[in-house]
């Protein structure tokens, strides 16, 4: 019975250990330019989520934080249960052997035949040796379980799901970038709605004076309705992102609506020129989970002796390619940002010229509207390009400091 209890506890322990391994692996998904130290100085209890506050929120309130706390409790309980079962087995085994040995001793003490006494002495000796071996085996298993428990507790204490937390931090910060990007679209659509509303009101008045047709008014109404529908969709998207971030960081399905997001990180426009790519690649390798896994490969797991070396070299090459691409993206986004600024200035000049021509009655309505909307779009494109540049730098920083990047793409 004690043996069955031990086996049952061992299976429970294996399941728990498997869950720990799964969480650790699942946490490594393709995160913010944060240092390894925890960020301090933020109020985690208010409804403002600052960008660099996300790491602390993940560590304290996230689903992963709750999983980690539960995991510590469950893993410790599992190891303790197994050791308790081993203690029962040890006691039962010792009692059974000792009882058998006592019986043999009684037989030996009650016989006078020398040969029989000698035979019984030998049996007693063998029984004691078997008992000691069995008890030592049980103690060895207890020691293994204790070592496993200590290792599991150390792993959890040192961040056994550390990669999962890094990835969640990155994911939530990326979601904030998406939210801010969508806010730019919301701003653009609000401007378009206002513009279309003004044009619609103007055409209604002109129709009353016979200066516009019903078809003109209908077209303006369709433009206004389309812009309003687009704005509604964007508002729904903003709410969905806020809900996702909020629920993941400790808010519930109702309180997330109170959340606001702080400012995004801002990087110098010449950031790429300040980087040492080789040094950054080394830093990224030290932090990257896949590279760490490659270093921990056991040669005995493969039929080819050089499999470990091949995997390490392949992962290193993938990191090198990814880092090179990330830095190239920073440069690309820098150029796009600068080009957007130029396009905005050209659109502004065209808009101002169209304003003067419209005042003089020298430009058609459709051409005037097109130039006005083009300027609104170009102004929004600058903000979008600026944010894309900062996010590209953020992605590069995340690779350098956290090892988070997409490999093999």
Short key terms for the protein model shown above:
409 residues, mainly alpha, two-stranded parallel sheet, 10 helices, 2 strands, disordered N terminus
What would your notes on this structure say?
The chain is 77% helix and 1% strand. The protein has ten helices and two strands; from the N terminus they run αβαααααβαααα. The chain has helices spanning 2-26, 54-61, 63-109, 114-157, 162-208, 214-248, 277-287, 289-295, 307-359, 365-402; strands at 48-49, 260-261. It has a two-stranded parallel sheet. Mean pLDDT is 81; it is low at 1-6 and 12-39.
Protein topology:
Elements: H1 2-26, E1 48-49, H2 54-61, H3 63-109, H4 114-157, H5 162-208, H6 214-248, E2 260-261, H7 277-287, H8 289-295, H9 307-359, H10 365-402
Parallel strand pairs: 1-2
Helix pairs in contact: 1-3, 2-3, 2-5, 3-4, 5-6, 5-10, 7-9, 7-10, 8-9, 9-10
In terms of DSSP E residues, the strand content is under 5%
- End-to-end Cα distance: 54 Å
- Poorly predicted regions are 1-6, 12-39
The rounded Rg comes to 35 Å
What's the number of extended β-strand segments? 2
**Mean pLDDT over all positions:** 81
CA-based shape? elongated
What is the spatial order of strands in the main beta sheet? Answer: 1-2
Which oligomerization state do the chains in this entry correspond to?
Answer: single chain
What would you call the structural class? mainly alpha
The biggest sheet, with number of strands, parallel, antiparallel or mixed sense and barrel status, is:
2 strands, parallel
């Amino acid at each position: 019975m004690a043996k069955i209890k031990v086996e049952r506890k061992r299976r429970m322990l294996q399941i728990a250990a498997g869950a720990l391994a799964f969480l650790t692996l699942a946490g490594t998904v393709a995160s913010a330019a944060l240092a390894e130290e925890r960020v301090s100085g933020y109020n985690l209890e208010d409804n403002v989520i600052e960008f660099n506050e996300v790491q602390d929120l993940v560590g304290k309130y996230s689903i992963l934080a709750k999983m980690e706390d539960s995991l510590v409790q469950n893993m410790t309980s599992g190891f303790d249960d197994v050791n308790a079962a081993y203690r029962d087995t040890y006691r039962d085994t010792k009692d059974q052997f000792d009882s058998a040995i006592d019986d043999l001793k009684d037989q030996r003490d009650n016989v006078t035949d020398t040969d029989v006494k000698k035979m019984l002495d030998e049996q007693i000796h063998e029984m004691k040796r078997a008992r000691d071996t069995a008890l030592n085996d049980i103690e060895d298993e207890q020691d293994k379980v204790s070592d496993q428990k200590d290792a599991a507790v150390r792993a959890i204490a040192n961040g056994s799901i550390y990669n999962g937390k890094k990835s969640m931090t990155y994911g939530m910060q990326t979601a904030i970038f998406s939210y801010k990007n969508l806010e730019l679209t919301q701003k653009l659509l609000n401007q378009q709605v206002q513009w279309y509303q003004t044009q619609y009101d103007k055409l209604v008045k002109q129709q009353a004076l016979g200066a516009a047709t019903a078809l003109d008014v209908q077209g303006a109404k369709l433009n206004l309705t389309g812009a309003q529908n687009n704005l509604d969709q964007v508002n729904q998207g903003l709410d969905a992102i806020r809900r996702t971030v909020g629920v993941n960081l400790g808010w519930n399905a109702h309180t997330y609506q109170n959340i606001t997001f702080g400012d995004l990180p801002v990087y110098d426009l010449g950031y790429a020129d300040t980087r040492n790519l080789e040094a950054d690649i080394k830093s990224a390798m030290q932090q990257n989970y896949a590279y760490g896994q490659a270093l921990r490969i056991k040669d005995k797991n493969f039929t080819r002796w050089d499999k470990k070396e091949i995997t390490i070299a392949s992962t290193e090459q993938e990191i090198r390619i990814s880092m090179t691409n990330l830095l190239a993206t920073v440069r690309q986004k820098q150029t796009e940002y600068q080009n957007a600024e130029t396009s905005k200035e050209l659109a502004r000049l065209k808009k101002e010229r169209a304003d003067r021509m419209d005042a003089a009655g020298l430009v058609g309505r459709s051409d005037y509207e097109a130039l006005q909307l083009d300027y609104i779009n170009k102004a929004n494109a600058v903000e979008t390009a600026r944010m894309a540049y900062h996010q590209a730098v953020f992605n590069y920083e995340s690779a350098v400091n956290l090892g988070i990047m997409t490999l093999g793409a």
